[in-house]
User: What shape does this take?
Amino acid sequence: MIDHRLHGALPLSRRAMLYGIGAGGLTAVLGGCATRAPALRMPSDPAANAAPDLVDLARFDPRLRLDIRYATPANFMGRVLYPLPRAVTQRPVAEALSRVQTRAEAAGYGLLIFDAYRPWRITKMMWDATPPAKREFVADPASGSRHNRGCSIDLSLHRGGIEVEMPSPYDDFTPAAYRSNTAAPAEALAASRMLEDWMVAEGFVPLANEWWHYDWAEWRRYPIMDVPLEAVTAG
Assistant: This one.
């Protein structure tokens, strides 16, 4: 079990910025004037030539700890988005994460997974509910997310089951989440950079504005998917 003492409530600034999301709140975000966008179809990437080979991380490497926030209301949408707390990735991603876990263990840490494969429909839901000024933190469904390909990981570190302090909370929509942030406590910055070093060494590419987000270097080979999480047959 993960000790949630460091989770706390979602930051007030985030709640304020995303006021109303998850409770019919798109109207509130748009100042009381709800609009309907044209129906958007899931994009297809002709460069994606690899067949999906999804694995369940909890089964693939039981050393990995899961804290799937989107399977609970404790996320920026304020509601349950996933029907079950499951983390699924393409097999090469899982293999690389297992190697990172081994690196982390050698230093007395372990990996804490927040999110992995995300169906395209959930990406669209997040985009539609996020104010335009904050959309740098969510993927545009018109082009799809690398999460939709099973090639992105949101994660942190734990030590003895207790989540390690990082420069900001997970899914924080402020500059505190940027990798360029130097205002956080020294120990938090050091932990973030340590995780980044291990992830990069095993083939992941860090996202500049989210310390927790990493993409598998060969993400483009895999297709954008919208298979519901509970329907994925993962090896």
Observations:
- The CA atoms of residues 48 and 223 lie 5 Å apart.
- The two ends are 24 Å apart (CA to CA).
